[in-house]
Amino acid sequence: MHASQPAVPCSILDLAPVVEGSDIPAAFANALDLARHAERLGYRRYWLAEHHNMPGIASAATAVLIAHIAGGTRTIRVGAGGIMLPNHAPLQVAEQFGTLASLYPDRIDLGLGRAPGTDQATARALRRYFDSADAFPSDVAELLRYFEPAQPGQPVRAVPGAGIDVPVWLLGSSLFSARLAAALGLPFAFASHFAPAAMDEALAVYRSEFRPSPRQAQPHAMLALNVVAAPGQAEARRLFTTQQQSFVRLRRGQPGLIPPPIDDIEAFWTPAEKAMVEQSLACAVVGDPDQVRDGIRAFVARHRPDELMLTANLFDHGARLRSFALAAAACGLEPAA
């Protein structure tokens, strides 16, 4: 094994960020460029997340953007990390991902989340009769049934969708989704990149309560990790201020376009905001190549994930490409032939 070889595969979570001074078409062009870059570097998956009514995130129509990315790449798995199921009818999600998996066989992943991924007014606008996420377990079960082979006399079937192998993941930041993923025998991805508080307990619950299913014989857990790599530590820390600012602005009720990095983050936030951000982004590895390698190794050794999902919401696209290249090297990924 190579000295820097990780014990786990690594993937990328993207939000199709819209940066200040740019626009949505540029965000989509950058997303495809990043996905092709990830494919060359040896990342396993490239996932997009569903958010709504957020000016700095362009991945609201997640399935449509997945089709664009999958069509512009050749081998990397492309998926949703995730589809916020309370916003959708399960049949429609089955049809969308049945279509995607028919167009791009063995390359599409479907991660499901329980949060609306937006504010309450937007949640009502998305699914006008929606009350809460209480129906999530039954919605997941209904969606899984649509991917089963259609039975004679079945009144409603997903076309496309029925009988198509679409790997389904549950995403979460609490024990609720960990328990549900274990009960249903599904792979589980924890949102440790922005809500790490329950990570260790959720992993323990998922692994101890897991029941094998036709979809998954044993527990399979993915952890998300913020990784910002640059040639020097000071530059990496400066790049990371983009994400820190975005977090503070969101909590201030001022979501906007993705801001450029700043030299003095201490002048930007209050002590309370700093504490909130450091708690939310505790699962972060920021530094030069050696620091990133050591940080990723330590994270994997401590938490033993089956996979890592790396994210880096950076302002400059070139710096972002470089960061993921340095992270791939730190993880010991094998570049595509």
SSE topology sketch:
Elements lengths: L9 E5 L9 H18 L3 E4 L13 H10 L5 E8 L5 H14 L4 E6 L6 H7 L9 H11 L21 E5 L2 H10 L3 E3 L8 H11 L11 E9 L3 H19 L19 H10 L3 E4 L1 H15 L3 E5 L5 H15 L6
Parallel strand pairs: 1-2, 1-9, 2-3, 3-4, 4-5, 5-6, 6-7, 7-8, 7-9
Helix pairs in contact: 1-11, 3-5, 6-7, 8-9, 10-11
Question: Main traits of this protein?
Answer:
9 strands, 8-stranded parallel β-barrel, disordered N terminus, 337 residues
Task: Provide an overview of this structure.
- The protein is an alpha/beta fold.
- Helix content is 42%, strand content 15%.
- An eight-stranded parallel beta barrel has the order 1-2-3-4-5-6-7-9, surrounded by eight helices.
- It is globular and about 65 Å long.
- The N terminus is likely disordered.
